[in-house]
Amino acid sequence: MDIIVIGGGAVGTSICSQLAKEGHDITVIDSKSAPLLELSNTCDVFTLQGNGADISLLKRAGAEKADLLIAVTSGDEVNILSCSAAKKLGTRHTIARVRNPEYSGLVQLMKSEMNLSLTINPELTAAKEVYRTLRFPAAAKIDTFSRGRVELAQLTVYDNSPICGSTLIELRSKLNIRFLICSVLRDNVAFIPNGSFVIQPKDIICITAPDDEITELFKAIGAYKQPVRDVMICGGGRTTYYLEAMLQKGNINSTVIERDKNLCHELAEQYSCTVLNGNGTDQQLLMEEGIDKVDAFLALSDVDEENAIMSMYAKNLGVSKVVTLISTMSYIDFFKSVGLDTIVSPKSSTTAYILRYVRSMTNVRDSEIESLHKFMEDKVEALEFSVKSDIEDVTDVPLKNLRLRPDTLIACIVHRDKIIIPTGNDVITKGDTVIVVTSGAIIDSIRDVIT
Q1: CA dist., res. 238 & res. 234, Å (int)
Q2: What architecture does CATH give domain 230-319?
Q3: Residues 367, 347: contact at Cβ < 8 Å?
């Protein structure tokens, strides 16, 4: 597809990199030359310098025939105007990043009038991911499928885990729980395991299970942690602003430490949380406020390095759950290597969200992507498809007879509201929701799971 990306910053670069790998024709517009030069050196893209809302520049970029325009500059107003102008010129679909909480409700209300196909908010997406990890503190990352009925959790296997040394077949027969280990990261290599795969210490595993059984599963494999009731948050920016609304609904108490007085006043006026004006890297302050007694510590400031330092301090004090916000993608592997296992990246979440939308645009009529999530340091994808019609060689065929692509697995089938963790005898039928996990192929349609 012909795609225009306006904004060559961190989010724009991440989007361009992924979409270029998938073979799309990308044109990038930015007001500064430096990010454009870096993008042209690292990605197969065409670049233009200027204002993304400039009609003449949009025409030069091919907006009159473009399939999609994605506006992710730092200015919400520019993003909205760019999308509106592109749609008037003939672009089929438009996506705008809108970060300001004051605009969010207005944009949703007037989306059609503003010619927006979709709006994205990296900070809101990050807040949702943080909240999901608090619901299941044993998991480093967790995502939901089928409207919350199926969970996919990522966690590390420790030396004393009762599942070490067991094959997947042995685990399925030993535990009277519906679950499936659908991917394993070992020595930075992602595997889609078969039944003879043996779990080893330090493996990072992805498990899928029904929502009402995942807690019992965590208890059975020795990974259960008590629910989070009290959290400390360092950083009172937009991610925290969105997260606080979720914490209040979940009856989770929070203390926020923020050095900007204006942000402190804004949070205190909006939410019933404790807000302190101070420096989150001040160890004495953290101890005075009881960091060693909270259930979870969230490092959500705008500075990656500070978030990492605060998180390592919290882990050394024995805080049960530590979540670290990291915006710079190149830092993630290093911070994970020093023990920060629950890292939230707004760029990664936003890229996956846009990628789902792009792939849904190319879907054939027999299936549609409902959601897409990335796991295992973005080496593994989990996609949710709704099967719209009968598909030759896919539907009504026992899974053991499907010619599945290498490194691809059917992780779950939802059939008439029944959650099926499949075996070889199960089948996919018209009307089902299917969760597919892959570490290799790019899958746009349920047809793509077979060779």
Answers
A1: 12
A2: 3-Layer(aba) Sandwich (3.40)
A3: no
Across 136-160, average pLDDT: 89
Give the per-residue pLDDT at 109: 72
Task: Kindly give the pairing relationship between strand 189-191 and strand 180-186.
Answer: antiparallel
pLDDT digits (tens, 9 = 90+) for 256-288: 999 999 999 999 999 999 999 999 999 999 999
- Give this prediction's pTM: 0.86
Rounded distance, CA 133 to CA 388, Å? 32
For the chain, the helix, strand and coil percentages under 3-state DSSP, each to the nearest 5: 35, 25, 40
Pairwise CA distance, residues 30 & 54, whole Å: 11
Whole-number percent of the chain with pLDDT over 70: 98
Give CA–CA dist 230/296, Å, rounded. 7
Does 127-220 match 357-449 in CATH topology? yes
| Consecutive H or E run containing 205 | strand 204-210
pLDDT band at 143 (very low <50, low <70, confident <90, very high): confident
Residues in the chain, total? 451
- Cβ atoms of 352 and 373 within 8 Å: the answer is yes
Residue at token pair 């199926």: 150
- Report domain extents, the chain: 2-120, 127-220, 230-319, 357-449
Classified by CATH at the fold level, domain 127-220 comes out as Alpha-Beta Plaits (3.30.70)
Calpha distance 374→351 (Å, rounded): 10
Of 149, 130, 127, 110, nearest to 242 by C-alpha is 127
The answer to whether 150 and 211 are in contact (CB under 8 A) is yes
CATH of 2-120, one of 3.40.190.10, 1.20.1420.30, 3.40.50.720, 3.40.1550.10: 3.40.50.720
| pLDDT computed for residue 366 by the predictor | 59
Q: What is the DSSP letter of 331?
A: G
User: Does residue 44 carry a pLDDT above 70?
Assistant: yes
pLDDT digits (tens, 9 = 90+) for 363-398: 555 567 888 888 888 889 999 999 989 999 999 999
**Joined tokens for residue 273:** 């949380």
DSSP E strand boundaries for 239-395? 253-258, 274-277, 296-299, 321-325, 343-344, 367-375, 380-387
DSSP character for 400? G
Q: What is the pLDDT of residue 155?
A: 92
**Model confidence band, residue 434 (pLDDT cutoffs 50, 70, 90):** very high
